[in-house]
Automatic annotation (TrEMBL), chains A, B:
Name of the protein in its database record: NUDIX hydrolase
Keyword Transcription: no
Keywords: Hydrolase
Keyword Secreted belongs to the record: no
Record-annotated Nudix hydrolase domain positions: 19-162
Pfam families in UniProt: NUDIX, WHD_NrtR
Highest taxon listed in the record's lineage: Bacteria
Cofactor (UniProt): Mg(2+)
GO MF entries: hydrolase activity
Species lineage: Bacteria, Pseudomonadati, Bacteroidota, Sphingobacteriia, Sphingobacteriales
Length: 245, 245
């Protein structure tokens, strides 16, 4: 197959330029209008679904490699990217390329660093990689079967994203510049997959100290106009470092 | 030097048995009687201080390698060990063995997975590794200079341990089987390095739902006997998976 030839050609380039045994996988969550999706690729050669990922160049920092992969797939730069776990079990990916020559780059044992990002999926342009014919957003309630251990990596990312909601802020780049508390609550509810008590949400979100109340409420609408808020960029960045006791 | 010869001999064994480019470093916090310490090694060849670490055998899961390293240094088994970050910058360790032959195992670029553990330091036996003449607990307020990027790894581990106090339980294996809320609060205060409000602490710790109140208060002492608590092992394990909104 033509796609097999491509993998074998790429393999040679990888051995020359990349750090063996190390890979990275990105769980890119996309949010827009109260929908949460995840970015997936379909491999040309096997027609299996995978998370976008890549390798680390010999002269490249690991963190830069993750940003490069994210940029290559989405065009998005300066996106908050969080390393959330290392996947280092035996046989997590080695068997996937069974039918290929033994010296194929992809047949080695890889220990993979997982990164997650959260973007507004209408604000980025997704692009397949060189092995894939499809790169698309899948609704998280209706994912196709993922190959290798990518379901585990995805499950971990979602669990950690949900945990981190309780002690790290979220919402920058995902909400309009000015938003209501109710819009912010919907973002949290979409990520958590369940509804939250309005009063509890208000108290907990205010504890972060990252919101700036705007002078003028939103205009129009039949009900009492709700107050608008924006993020305080400095306090938001500080809070990303983690809230403690 | 004899210790140099040992490193060169070990290097050959590493190339045969371990996965290149991958290492792991363990930040082992020791707690006892309201003191927090960290386990350090002093290398024989360079007399520099390092965190205990190791490599991954070709046929070994990454997580098992971390447990093996912890067991080799402390004799402790079944200790809660948390992967907390990957350290993958260029030149984080490569320069450390400058004066050695280029094919030395330790001179390659390593991407290192960081694990932390928290043990009762009076309950374990520390043992130096094959390159070190000293393995000892250092008080966290008075650490020696650490080589490579091990200060960064340590700083990250402490920051993450402190963050995780707010959403994961802590204390099993560190406190007596039955303890007072005040003893548990002291553990938190020692790790955080500052005092906490008693009422706030009580409310937050009760939210975890991991404590079982004992029928009989502690006997003896001049004051009103405080209630004793123990951990509910099942709820403790569940809560380790993370508390959310």
């Amino acid at each position: 197959m033509e796609s097999d030839q491509k993998i074998i050609r790429q393999s040679k380039w990888m051995w020359e330029n990349c750090l063996p045994h190390i890979s990275l996988d990105c769980v890119v969550f996309g949010f827009h209008d109260n929908q949460l999706k995840v970015l997936l690729l379909k491999m040309e050669a096997t027609q299996k679904w995978l998370l976008p990922g890549g390798f680390v160049l010999k002269n490249e920092h690991l963190q830069d490699a993750a940003h490069r992969v994210l940029f290559e797939r989405t065009g998005a730069e300066r996106i908050y990217l969080q390393e959330f776990g290392v996947f280092g079990s035996l046989n997590r990916s080695e068997g996937f390329f069974e039918s290929y020559p033994d010296d194929l780059w992809y047949k080695q044992r890889f220990i993979s660093a997982g990164f997650y990002a959260l973007v507004d999926y209408t604000a980025v342009n997704v692009t397949p990689d060189e092995y894939s014919d499809t790169c698309q957003w899948s609704n998280i309630d209706d994912l196709p079967e993922l190959a290798m251990d990518h379901q585990l990596i995805y499950d971990n990312a979602l669990a950690i994203l949900r945990q981190q909601l309780s002690h790290k802020p979220i919402g920058l780049n995902l909400l309009p510049e000015r938003f209501t508390i109710s819009e912010l609550q919907k973002l949290y509810e979409t990520i958590l997959g369940r509804s939250l008590n309005r009063g509890n949400f208000y108290r907990r979100i205010m504890r972060f100290g990252i919101l700036v109340k705007q002078e003028d409420p939103r205009k129009g609408g039949a009900h009492k106009a709700p107050y608008l808020y924006s993020f305080d960029p400095l306090k938001y960045q500080e809070s990303l470092q983690g809230l403690d006791w």
